[in-house]
TrEMBL record:
InterPro entries: FlK, FlK-like_dom
Name the UniProt record assigns to this protein: Thioesterase
Segments forming domain Fluoroacetyl-CoA-specific thioesterase-like: 34-127
Superkingdom, natural source: Bacteria
One Pfam entry name: FlK
Species, as recorded: Desulfomarina profundi
Length: 139
């Protein structure tokens, strides 16, 4: 982690929602999801927020040796967003506790605020993390 990884880092990322990011696409194996409205799925919204946090902090890590993984998500999903709308996600790093990072997160679809909340990430050494996963696979 570089000395520049400090609270106050902000990042904004835009993403146009394609058909492939609607509820039915989240788990196409789930017949219940196939009957749901064609709107941006909460699971993909979480992914967009994680992506935005990653983009915010990667310049402050020794990327790709150091990476971050999500460890907590606490968000609302306040409004439905149909495909074709552009979502703007805004994140701010508000706390650094060793390798644990806490962000405020928010997103808007041009009409409504669709989410707000907090997200925590943990900085990892990719090589060590992968070794741990390999060991888990072999148990």
């Amino acid at each position: 982690m570089k000395d520049t990884l400090k609270p106050g880092i902000r990042y904004e990322h835009t993403f146009t929602v394609p058909e492939s990011k609607t509820v039915a696409s989240l788990y196409p194996e789930a017949s219940e999801f196939l009957e749901m409205p064609e709107v941006f799925a909460t699971g993909f919204l979480v992914g967009l927020l994680e992506w935005t946090c990653i983009k915010a902090i990667n310049p402050h890590l020794d990327w790709p040796r150091e990476q971050s993984v999500g460890i907590r998500v606490d968000i609302s999903h306040e409004a439905a967003t149909p495909p074709g709308f552009t979502v703007t996600a805004t994140v701010e790093l508000i706390k650094v506790e060793g390798k644990k990072l806490t962000f405020t997160v928010e997103a808007h679809d041009g009409v409504d605020r669709i989410t707000r909340g907090r997200h925590e990430r943990f900085v990892i050494n990719k090589k060590k993390f992968d070794a741990g996963i390999a060991g888990k696979k072999n148990t």
